[in-house]
Structure prediction request, 258 residues.
Amino acid sequence: MKNAEIRRLSEFRSLLEGFAASHAARNASASPDTLRCMRSSLKQLIKAVRARDYAGFRSADLELHQTIVGLANIPTLEGAWRVVWDGLLPLHKKGFDDYFPDSATIAEEHEYLVDTIAFGDPAAAEDAARTHIEAVWLRIAEQARSNSDAESSPLKRATVHIAFRLHCPLTLTHVANKIAFTSPGNLSRLFRRHHGVSFQVYLQRLRMEKAAELLRTTRLPVARIAKRVGYNDASRFSQHFKRLFDATPIGYRTAGHR
Prediction:
């Protein structure tokens, strides 16, 4: 299957699963047994990821996503979703080292998705589902290293990677060497030339803008949003947020920005 076809199917899956996750979150409180099934599948998935058991991961991953789609309780949705899932199966013939070298990240993404559904927040669940699938596509695109001008640009590769990895530790050296395939000095110059700010300022601004979006559109606790955009320290997150928006995260939310 060509990359363009994979991309279109991935986009369709993103739409379907975002829609499903949103409705699953609406139904979660009335479906404790289904939530228990989701958490059981998640536990098996994490166990398989830690053991680098790719076959076990694929089985648990299918079970988890199928449960989420079922919890949405939308007629014909599961049939349409399964067609798309099966269409993307060729992507999964390899293994973790090809598309998921960071096992901690993939486990965290699934945990976050389940948490947002269990929390009963449709907007957060939809965002989690769609971001997760887009991140998979990003990894595929990175592996392919397209020769087109846009995708071969070091700055383009860096900015796309950052956009889907805001919750991960990111450094200029790592992104330059492993993602942009250029030197840290050159990538730093590219950020200043095209965005007018350093790599670190660009990253922090993107994180704060994503946090503001989640504060406006979801009911997630501030500490959870902080973690979602790469901050384990909620106090430090609040300081950086106030510096950009002239309001604390709680103040921003309660001031009517939602």
